[in-house]
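Re: that chain you flagged

S.,

Sorry for the slow reply, it's been a week of failed gels. I finally had a moment to sit down with the sequence you sent. For the record, here it is as I used it:
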Amino acid sequence: MDAGPELSTYLASLRLLIEERLKFDTELSKQCPQKLQEAIRYSLLAPGKRVRPCLALMACEACGGDIKAALPAASALEMIHCYSLIHDDLPAMDDDDLRRGRPTNHIQFGESTAILAGDGLLTLAFETLAKGITDPQVAIACVADLASAAGVEGMVGGQQADLEGEEIEDISLEHLESIHRRKTGRLLTAPLIMGGRIAGADVETLNNLKIYGESVGLAFQIADDLLDVVGDSRKMGKGVQKDADHGKATYPALLGLEESRKKANLIIDQACDAISGFGDRGNYLAALAKYTIERDH
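Prediction finished late last night. Pasting the structure tokens below so you have them in one place:
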């Protein structure tokens, strides 16, 4: 992730913690078939930005908590994200053969194993949360947060609405935003809420983190749409201009490139306003929000 030097150094330190935790959580027993474990680790441990787990650690620290206490949540979030990518790449969905600069899971291991690898990550995420968070009430709340964000009214529902949107000729901006608030936004908001909970944040603070997350999630999707049009496939590690090929509605298609950029900037301003009360503790969150729309991959 290319950002300002200070933010880049900070994120790199968080990613080191996250990578070690992901390796630890996928050191599975012999009860897990070797090929399945290889497929899980192939995708989960592939180089990535780790945005969602980083957000969980950053929110926990911004709320005065110990970031190591949030590592189970960070790991579970990346598992959910990774499972969704494995399934999104399948021939029945987006039919992609490249992810993070490498062959997609179903290309590498076969379609059946890829489906099971995604299923395995989905369930392992909740086991990791339930066993890893020491306070039972916080663990239950985080399990509910993640299930809601990833489920039928969140990411999965957004994915279904996105598929159906391909059949709608004149999709509205409101409809498009509804799709992406579920498909992308919910799983970018959940880390902040979970990190805040683990740190013992109050209701008002959790609400501010929610506003920040929803805003960053929407801006992140606009940036992704823009990169699909103007991005460099070598930097992104995946194909570009796929949305137009699949007939998907996007922000650039509805608003144009320049208006999409303006909208993303406005939304990021809203995100930064929401965490202004954190003072210096929110500096990294604010910097990451701004980087969301400045990135080139």
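What I noticed first: The chain has a mean pLDDT of 91.

Talk soon,
D.
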